[in-house]
Automatic annotation (TrEMBL):
GO biological process, one term: response to stress
Gene: LOC113869791
Protein name as catalogued: AAA-ATPase At2g18193-like
SMART domains, per database record: AAA
InterPro entries linked: AAA+_ATPase, AAA_N_dom, At3g28540-like_C, ATPase_AAA_core, ATPase_AAA_CS, Mitochondrial_chaperone_BCS1, P-loop_NTPase
C-alpha cells in the first residue's frame, strides 16, 4: 500500500511535466482499490455503517439547511384550526396522476366521491415559481391532551419550502390556500331554506333543482339577471368605497305561474346563498321584524312574497293579542301595542343592511306591481325590476328541451310559436301539457290542440 501511495505521490509531483493523464488515473485507481480492501479488512462492519450514516446525515443536513417547515396542527388551543381544514380541501386538487396513495369515500351530502391525502406520500405544489411540499403527519396523544381531549390522535400538515420564499409564503401563498378553500366550500355547501315558525327561523335543505339553464325565460332577460348577480358579487370594494351597504334588491312581478319561485331557487343555487322565506303574517310587530332580519346570515336571500297582498298585515290595529311561544303552555295571551307597519319595514330594510351583515339580497314578489307602494319601488330597495310574463317563442324552446328533449327545430314549433304570440298562457300551464305524454310528437300535437282551443275562447270573449 505504501508503494501505491508513493507511486501516486510521484505521479502528482511530476504532473506539471507529464503529458499523459493515464498514469495519474492508474495510480489513483490502484490506491482506491487498496484503500477499500484495507478498510474492509481492518474496520469492523458496524463501524463502517456508523461512519456512512454520519456522512449521509451531514450532507443531508447541509443540503436541507435552507428548507423551512411549517407545522399546521389540526387543533389550536382547543379549537379547530381553519388553516388545517383549508389544506384538507385544497390539497386533493393538487394531486397528480403520479400520486400513488389516496383515501377515498362518499359522504351523504356530497354528490361525488371525496378524495383525501393519507400521509404516505408528499404532495407537491407550485405557486408563483415557488416549489412547496405538503406532508400529512399523524401523532398520538393521551386522552387528556389539552388540544383535543376527545381523541388520542391528532393530524397535522408539514409545509416545506425554501427559506428565501418565507415572506411570500406567509403573506401570499397561505392566504391563497384559505381563499381557495372558501371557493371550494361554497361550491360544496348544502343550501338551506329558513322559514319563520313561532317567531323563530327553522331551516331545512333547499332541494329545488331549478337552475338558469332550466328556466323558461327569454335568453336575453336571463343573461341580464346573471350579469347583474355577477356584478353584485365582485363589487364588494366598490360598495365599501362609496359608503353603501353590500346588498341588492329585486322585484319579481308577473301573473301566477310565470316562474317567480323557480327564479328565486335558481338564483340561490347559482349564488350558493341560503334563502329566508319571510312571511309577513308571521311577523307580529316592527320589533319582531327587526329580530327576524337581524338573525339572517351573510350570503343570504331574504324573500317576501306577494308584497301587494300584505296591506292588511301592515295595517293591523295598534293592540293585538298573541301567545308567547317561549313561555309555558298555561300562560295567558299577551296584549301588545306594537304593530308591523310599512314604515317599519322600510326602515329595517335600510337600517339592517347598514348596521350589520353583508352580501345580502332581498327579493319581493307580486302579481300586481301597480298595487305596491311607490316607496318600496325606488332604487336602493328594489334595484332591479324583473317582469316574468306569459310564455313566448324563445322561452318555449327551453321547455321543449327540458320536458321532451327536443334540441333544435321541430315541424310543429312554428305553429306553436304563432299561437303563443296570439294568446296569454303561462309557462306552468304549457309545462303541464308537455308532461302528459312521453312521446314528443304526441305531446306537441296535444299542445297545438290545447292552444288552438285557448285562442278560440279568447276570440269569443273579445267578441
Amino acid at each position: 500500500m505504501r508503494a501505491s501511495i508513493e507511486s501516486l505521490s510521484s505521479s502528482f509531483t511530476n504532473f506539471r511535466s507529464a503529458t499523459s493523464w493515464f498514469e495519474v488515473y492508474a495510480a489513483f485507481s490502484t490506491f482506491m482499490m487498496i484503500l477499500r480492501t484495507a478498510m474492509n479488512d481492518l474496520i469492523p462492519q458496524q463501524v463502517r455503517l456508523f461512519i456512512t450514516s454520519k456522512l449521509k446525515a451531514f450532507f443531508s443536513d447541509r443540503q436541507n439547511s435552507h428548507q423551512v417547515s411549517l407545522q399546521i396542527n389540526q387543533f389550536w388551543e382547543g379549537q379547530t384550526n381553519q388553516l388545517f381544514q383549508a389544506a384538507q380541501e385544497y390539497l386533493p386538487a393538487r394531486i397528480t396522476h403520479t400520486y400513488k396513495s389516496l383515501k377515498v369515500g362518499k359522504l351523504p351530502k356530497h354528490k361525488s366521491v371525496v378524495v383525501a391525502v393519507d400521509g404516505k406520500q408528499e404532495v407537491a405544489d407550485e405557486f408563483e415559481d415557488i416549489k412547496l411540499k405538503w406532508k400529512l403527519i399523524e401523532s398520538s396523544y393521551k386522552r387528556d391532551h389539552p388540544e383535543h381531549p376527545k381523541s388520542n390522535e391528532q393530524l397535522s400538515f408539514t409545509l416545506s419550502f425554501d427559506e428565501k420564499h418565507r415572506d411570500k409564503v406567509m403573506n401570499k401563498y397561505i392566504p391563497h390556500v384559505l381563499s381557495t378553500h372558501e371557493v371550494i366550500k361554497a361550491k360544496q355547501r348544502t343550501i338551506k331554506i329558513h322559514s319563520m315558525i313561532s317567531r323563530h327561523w327553522q331551516k331545512s335543505d333547499l332541494t329545488h333543482p331549478a337552475s338558469f339553464d332550466s328556466l323558461a325565460l327569454d335568453p336575453e332577460q336571463k343573461q341580464a339577471i346573471i350579469d347583474d348577480l355577477d356584478r353584485f358579487l365582485r363589487r364588494k370594494e366598490l360598495y365599501k368605497k362609496v359608503g353603501k351597504p353590500w346588498k341588492r334588491g329585486y322585484l319579481l312581478y308577473g301573473p301566477p305561474g310565470t316562474g317567480k319561485s323557480s327564479l328565486i331557487a335558481a338564483m340561490a343555487n347559482y349564488l350558493k346563498f341560503d334563502v329566508y322565506d319571510l312571511e309577513l303574517s308571521s311577523v307580529y310587530s316592527n320589533s319582531d321584524l327587526m329580530r327576524a332580519l337581524r338573525d339572517t346570515s351573510n350570503r343570504s336571500i331574504v324573500v317576501i312574497e306577494d308584497i301587494d297582498c300584505n296591506k292588511e298585515v301592515l295595517a293591523r290595529p295598534n293592540t293585538d293579542t298573541y301567545s308567547d311561544p317561549d313561555s309555558d303552555s298555561d300562560s295567558k295571551p299577551v296584549k301588545v301595542k306594537s304593530r308591523l307597519t310599512l314604515s317599519g319595514l322600510l326602515n329595517h330594510m335600510d337600517g339592517l343592511w347598514s348596521s350589520g351583515g353583508e352580501e345580502r339580497i332581498i327579493i319581493f314578489t307580486t302579481n300586481h306591481k301597480e298595487r305596491i307602494d311607490p316607496a318600496l319601488l325606488r332604487p336602493g330597495r328594489m334595484d332591479m325590476h324583473i317582469n316574468l310574463s306569459f310564455l313566448k317563442a324563445k322561452a318555449f324552446r327551453i321547455l321543449a328541451l327540458n320536458y321532451l328533449g327536443i334540441e333544435g327545430d321541430h315541424p310543429l314549433f312554428e305553429q306553436i310559436e304563432g299561437l303563443l304570440d296570439k294568446i296569454q298562457v303561462t309557462p306552468a300551464v304549457v309545462a303541464e301539457q308537455l308532461m302528459r305524454n312521453e312521446d314528443p310528437d304526441v305531446a306537441l300535437e296535444a299542445l297545438v290542440k290545447f292552444l288552438e282551443e285557448m285562442y278560440v275562447n279568447t276570440l269569443l270573449l273579445e267578441s
